[in-house]
């Protein structure tokens, strides 16, 4: 029964997505029926998945495994199966809930504007269908009982993210950002694929249960885990493959919410927890993971301090928060990582949707042109406050408890050597995590102050308002010059269809942390007693850091209400804003050589390969023509061919075959 | 020996059902004289035959008409598969015939009767246990087709196709009969198993040149039925001249019959040492010539005809592995036979889907037309177009058409198991050539519809005339009316063409669409669960 439910989980959005793809893409917002059908399908698919996930969460017991052989071609055996445990059910609920919120929110966000050019809302049906497919792929990753199935979901997610990020064709940055996301994650996926192949060959089966039970040799295990980490780094935006994530902000804001909160970036962390028993036996891989996590954590947090684009602040904060999760994994606390994943899913989805509401109202994502929105948008303001509080780790909001769990695990690993990895990994993660708390509090406070408090800068146009970086994101479609009246003049809270997802997401963002005190919840995360609830004096340290970070930002803002607290960063500001110029490094080290190589390969291809191929093609076509010419006169030649063929082949058989 | 044989009527039930269908159709046509009733009887009869085959086949192997241990009629698992397939193909072709029958181009009673007769031949063929039964069954399958091909009233192309088919077929049958007679002269046996056992017992027989000649002649005569090169020249002309549903029947059921007959003699009777090299040669020739010539075809049905010639090569290829000693071990042989059966089953399903889509896209009773006539068809009718594209991609063996992909994988694997890597390489190269024209046709479906330029329309008639059968009958000597005099629309002078370039929406019968849907669905299902077919084929 649970097996069936597990199979049903990705099927519901999959069917909705596939049917949705068949709808006419909708021309110019006039095709209202297709749009309504697409909305219905998308919401129904996500709601169905949420329902199944909730039933599953209620029923799930010890890890259960169901599988059938799909195809047996000689030595290649592929199974179809699901593997369900409490963690899978919890993540599935989070995925489905965020997907549902995004589907509902998108109805309002991508609404055709009666005053606008009809072009605004083109292609809603494929958009909703792609979100459904994306959800289905993530759910497939969540329930997959076979590494090959997991890989299928993993890859489908990559494709869907490509399509969704590039959804708005009119943004110059969107196709490039989509291509970048696709290519960068693809680099990691190669490693992931090889890792899976290595594990499968070593265990003689791709079933996760078999792979986990098999006694791999130490070298194989380390190699496989490191290869898997490459894929994890790609999907979960870990250093050095994190560069795609901030650029992916070119996608519509609900898509950012979906990618950042519960799906794509969570997939990497989830895949590691799924295979955690293997990583536990490979301390080298965990050490790499820990170093990666610590670097990512600080890098993301510092980069977030200097962004001017609202969405890019959130994007970099995602990078940083995922760093906390991978850090927790590295110090041997997968339950804490999953807990933070769930809490992050709630508050990051909330933050993105709230940011979407702001962008929707103002028509810009640049914080230089915001400010003073608290009075005009009270609902959005309070939702953002809850989200940012959770992000910074303000008690008693969810982020406090989950981050506390991660820090406590890191502390234990650092001070007592409790983790599976060496103690220095614990120190690294712990210290990075503590610094991260202060930096997070700083940029969260800055975001809140710049956006909602102080003077309204909405009409301000000047050099200061210009985007601080070349990738300045995109104003929302509504902000096109075609209808300036829609922007800025009267910011207001979003319409109900966008407001309700916000309000409902605010509940778990605020309260999910308290679930750590509920035994059914901790039991499903397979957390040891008391691991997730630390209320000791040790919790005071992060709180003090939080207060320091927030206080600094506040102080900076007090001095100059119109100015940006980020100016305090001095010459470091632009470096942080550009994400430590890693994009430039990437361009110099990877893109340029590859382009040069490609040019060379292209020349070779055009001169040598194409020549050969075209020659072959011409030869084949010519030969075909000549042979066709022989077949013009059907009857006489056919009869002659039969007789002659029989004579010749018969003779040949007698002369050669007889002698053989 | 008793001269009174006990006859196992249960084993014969599918054959009875098929033959009964033919008789009932004739009676229905005579007594009720309503087209719908006749077609309904034929359809019900084919369903009954399919069910009968499945039920009898499920009950284990049954043999009858036995002389000692040798039986002339053995109804086992494969016979059941073949019988059921024949009956279902007949049903499908019957459904495809709806539009052309309604258009009144062919007499309904005769049409259904002949189809049922052909089905009878096919059902018996699967169970044939001796050479005479085999040849008679094969002729029963083929004979009605001569008439069916030429049944289109007033069509010169059709008559020409029928005569071509008839003459070449008679020549080929002569070869088979000659071979069978020589084989009898050498071995004194006609039952397939007896001949096989004799060759196994007395290997010195193989050193007699006459044996080799006899074996080669039997094989070559049968190779005609699958349209293997060099016995293929009838196929394009015949397919193109025949009504579309009959062409579908020729390329599916008739081809299936040829493969079954070949398999029967190769598997049971003839020594692999002789058949292997002959089949390997035929396979290479067939694949290569079929694919190369298909590259240059402009008429849709001709293209499909040449492609089905090439497909026959893929069917023969696994049997070609018998040419090598490594391929003659019991395991490798079993794998090769199973691969050939599996391939032909996959192929028949996908090919029927392709023809069904073509029938659905063309005006009622029209012929296949040129490839350019299909330009943009998938934009006008997305579902049918998608099914057609899926079938074409399946024939090419590309991933979305999983059925075709697994078919090719099966063949290649059987070849590699049999140590015939070189033949696998030939298959792979041919698959690449095949892609060129399958994809050309598939992309044409999605191409932007041709602008209705008179200048553009003008060159079209010469194009089709170029690919059409050159006149071989004295009456067809005038080039202008040659392509399809039966179709006023097609034969109309050039100025009339622009109106045809944007055809009015075509409404094929429900039956055609249903056949297309079922065939596509089956193709998708076996594509996702290839193990089903592989298991069935290995029985």
Describe this structure in a few short sentences.
The complex is a heterodimer of chains A (660) and B (539). Chain A is an all-alpha fold and 660 residues long.
Describe this protein's structure.
The complex is a heterodimer of chains A (660) and B (539). Chain A is an all-alpha fold and 660 residues long. Chain A folds into 2 domains: 1-179 and 252-280, no CATH class; 282-459 and 491-577, no CATH class. Helices cover 69% and strands 3% of the residues of chain A. Chain A has helices spanning 2-22, 32-59, 86-109, 124-143, 147-165, 173-203, 208-213, 218-235, 244-247, 253-261, 264-274, 276-280, 283-305, 310-330, 334-362, 378-392, 398-416, 423-452, 496-511, 519-524, 540-559, 572-577, 582-630, 634-659; strands spanning 64-73, 76-84. A two-stranded antiparallel sheet of chain A has the order 1-2. In chain A, a hairpin with a 2-residue loop joins strand 1 (64-73) and strand 2. In chain A, helix 13 (283-305) packs parallel to helix 18. The longest helix of chain A is centred in the C-terminal third of the chain and has 49 residues, at 582-630. Residues 115-119 and 460-488 of chain A have low confidence and may be disordered. Chain B has 539 residues and is mainly alpha-helical. Chain B has a domain at 271-448 and 504-539. Chain B has 23 helices and 2 strands. Chain B has helices at 9-31, 35-58, 77-102, 108-127, 131-149, 156-187, 192-201, 209-225, 234-241, 244-269, 272-294, 300-320, 330-361, 377-380, 382-396, 402-417, 421-446, 454-457, 460-467, 488-491, 497-501, 510-528, 530-538; strands at residues 62-67, 70-75. In chain B, strands 1-2 form a two-stranded antiparallel sheet. The longest helix of chain B has 32 residues, at 156-187. Mean pLDDT of chain B is 82; it is low at 453-506. Classes of the chains: A mainly alpha (660), B mainly alpha (539). Chains A and B meet through strand 1, helix 23 and helix 24 of A and helix 6, helix 8, helix 9 and helix 11 of B.
């Amino acid at each position: 029964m649970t097996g069936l439910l597990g199979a049903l989980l990705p099927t519901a959005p999959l069917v909705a997505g596939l049917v949705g793809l068949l709808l006419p893409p909708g021309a110019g917002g006039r095709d209202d029926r297709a749009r309504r059908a697409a909305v219905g399908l998308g919401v129904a698919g996500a709601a169905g998945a949420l329902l199944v996930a909730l039933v599953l969460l209620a029923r799930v017991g010890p890890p259960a495994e169901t599988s059938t052989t799909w195809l047996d071609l000689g030595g290649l055996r592929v199974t179809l199966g699901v593997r369900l445990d409490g963690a899978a059910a919890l993540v599935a609920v989070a995925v489905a809930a965020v997907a549902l919120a995004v589907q509902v929110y998108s109805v309002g966000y991508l609404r055709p504007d009666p005053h606008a050019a009809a072009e605004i809302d083109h292609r809603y049906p494929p958009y909703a269908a792609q979100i459904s497919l994306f959800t289905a792929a993530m759910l497939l990753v969540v329930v997959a009982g076979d590494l090959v199935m997991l890989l299928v979901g993993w890859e489908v997610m990559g494709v869907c993210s490509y399509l969704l990020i590039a959804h708005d064709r009119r943004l110059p940055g969107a196709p490039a950002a989509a291509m970048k996301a696709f290519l960068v994650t693809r680099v990691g996926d190669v490693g992931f694929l090889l890792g899976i192949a290595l594990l499968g060959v070593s265990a003689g089966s791709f079933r996760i249960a078999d792979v986990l039970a098999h006694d791999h040799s130490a070298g194989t295990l380390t190699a496989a885990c490191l290869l898997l980490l490459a894929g994890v780094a790609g999907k979960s935006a870990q250093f050095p493959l994190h560069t795609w994530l901030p650029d992916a902000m070119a996608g519509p804001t609900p898509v950012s919410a979906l990618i950042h909160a519960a799906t794509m970036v969570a997939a990497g962390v989830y895949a590691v927890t799924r295979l955690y028993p293997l990583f536990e036996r490979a301390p080298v891989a965990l050490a790499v993971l820990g170093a990666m996590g610590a670097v990512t954590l600080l890098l993301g947090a510092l980069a977030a301090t200097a962004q001017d684009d609202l969405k890019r602040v959130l994007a970099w904060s995602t990078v940083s928060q995922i760093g906390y999760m991978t850090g927790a994994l590295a110090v041997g606390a997968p339950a804490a990582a999953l807990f933070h994943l769930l809490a992050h899913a709630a508050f990051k989805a909330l933050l993105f949707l709230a940011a979407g509401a702001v962008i929707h109202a103002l028509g810009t994502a640049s914080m230089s042109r915001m400010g003073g929105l608290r009075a005009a948008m009270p609902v959005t303001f309070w939702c953002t406050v809850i989200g940012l509080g959770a992000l910074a780790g303000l008690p008693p909001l969810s982020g406090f408890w989950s981050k506390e769990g991660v820090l406590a695990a890191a502390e234990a690993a650092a001070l007592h050597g409790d983790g599976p990895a060496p103690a220095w990994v614990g120190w690294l993660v712990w210290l990075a995590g503590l610094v991260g708390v202060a930096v997070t509090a700083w940029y969260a406070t800055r975001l809140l102050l710049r956006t909602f408090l102080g003077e309204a800068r909405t009409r301000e146009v000047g050099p200061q308002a210009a985007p601080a970086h070349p990738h300045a994101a995109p104003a929302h479609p509504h902000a096109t010059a075609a209808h300036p009246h829609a922007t800025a003049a009267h910011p207001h809270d979003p319409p109900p269809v966008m407001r309700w997802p916000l309000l409902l997401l605010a509940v778990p963002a605020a309260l999910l942390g308290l679930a750590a005190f509920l035994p059914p919840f901790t039991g499903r995360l397979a957390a040891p007693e008391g691991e997730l609830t630390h209320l000791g004096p040790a919790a005071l340290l992060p709180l003090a850091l939080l207060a320091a970070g927030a206080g600094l930002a506040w102080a900076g803002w007090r001095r100059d209400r119109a100015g940006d607290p980020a100016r305090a960063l001095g010459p470091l500001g632009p470096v942080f804003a550009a994400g430590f110029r890693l994009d430039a490094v990437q361009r110099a080290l990877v893109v340029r050589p590859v382009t040069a190589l490609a040019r060379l390969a292209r020349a070779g291809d055009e001169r040598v390969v194409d020549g050969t191929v075209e020659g072959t093609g011409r030869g084949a076509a010519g030969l075909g023509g000549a042979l066709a010419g022989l077949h013009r006169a059907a009857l006489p030649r056919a009869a002659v061919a039969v007789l002659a063929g029989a004579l010749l082949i018969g003779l040949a058989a007698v002369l050669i075959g007889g002698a053989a | 020996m008793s001269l009174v044989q006990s006859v196992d009527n249960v084993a014969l039930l599918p054959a009875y059902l098929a033959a009964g269908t033919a008789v009932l159709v004739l009676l229905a046509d005579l007594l009720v004289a309503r087209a719908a009733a006749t077609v309904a009887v034929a359809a019900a009869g084919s369903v009954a035959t399919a069910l009968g085959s499945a039920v009898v086949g499920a009950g284990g192997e049954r043999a009858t008409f036995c002389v000692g241990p040798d039986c002339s009629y053995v109804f086992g698992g494969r016979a059941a598969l073949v019988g059921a397939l024949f009956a279902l193909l007949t049903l499908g072709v019957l459904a495809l015939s709806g539009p052309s029958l309604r258009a009144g181009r062919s007499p309904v009673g005769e049409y259904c009767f002949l189809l049922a007769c052909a089905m009878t031949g096919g059902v018996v063929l699967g169970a044939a246990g001796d050479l005479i039964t085999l040849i008679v069954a094969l002729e029963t399958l083929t004979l009605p087709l001569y008439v069916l091909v030429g049944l289109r009233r007033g069509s010169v192309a059709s008559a020409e196709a029928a005569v071509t088919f008839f003459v070449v077929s008679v020549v080929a049958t002569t070869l088979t009969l000659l071979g069978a007679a020589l084989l009898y002269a050498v071995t004194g046996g006609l039952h397939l198993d007896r001949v096989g056992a004799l060759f196994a017992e007395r290997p010195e027989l193989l050193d007699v040149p006459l044996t080799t000649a006899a074996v080669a002649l039997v094989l070559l005569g049968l190779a005609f039925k699958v349209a293997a090169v060099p016995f293929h020249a009838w196929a394009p002309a015949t397919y193109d001249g025949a009504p579309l549903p009959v062409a579908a029947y020729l390329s599916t059921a008739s081809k299936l019959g040829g493969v079954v007959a070949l398999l029967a003699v190769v598997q049971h009777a003839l020594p692999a040492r002789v058949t292997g090299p002959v089949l390997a040669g035929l396979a290479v020739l067939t694949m290569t010539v079929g694919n190369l010539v298909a590259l240059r075809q402009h008429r849709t049905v001709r293209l499909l005809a040449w492609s089905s010639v090439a497909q026959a090569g893929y069917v023969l290829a696994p049997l070609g592995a018998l040419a090598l000693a490594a391929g003659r071990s019991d395991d490798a042989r079993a794998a090769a036979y199973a691969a050939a059966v599996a391939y032909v089953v996959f192929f028949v399903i996908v090919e029927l889907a392709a023809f069904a889509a073509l029938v659905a896209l063309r005006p009622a009773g029209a012929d296949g037309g040129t490839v350019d006539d299909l330009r943009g068809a998938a934009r006008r009718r997305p579902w049918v177009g998608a099914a057609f594209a899926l079938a074409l991609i399946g024939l090419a063996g590309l991933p979305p058409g999983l059925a075709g992909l697994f078919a090719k994988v099966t063949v290649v694997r059987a070849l590699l198991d049999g140590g015939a890597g070189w033949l696998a390489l030939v298959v792979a190269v041919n698959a690449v050539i095949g892609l060129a024209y399958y994809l050309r046709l598939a992309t044409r479906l999605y191409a932007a519809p041709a602008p209705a330029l008179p200048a553009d329309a003008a060159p079209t008639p010469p194009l089709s005339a170029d690919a059409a059968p050159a006149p071989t009958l004295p009456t067809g000597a005038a080039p202008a009316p040659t392509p399809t005099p039966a179709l006023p629309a097609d034969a109309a002078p050039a100025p009339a063409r622009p109106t045809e370039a944007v055809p009015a929406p075509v409404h094929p019968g429900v039956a055609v669409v249903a056949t297309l849907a079922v065939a596509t669905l089956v193709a998708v299902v076996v594509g996702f669960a290839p193990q089903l077919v592989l298991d069935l084929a290995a029985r």
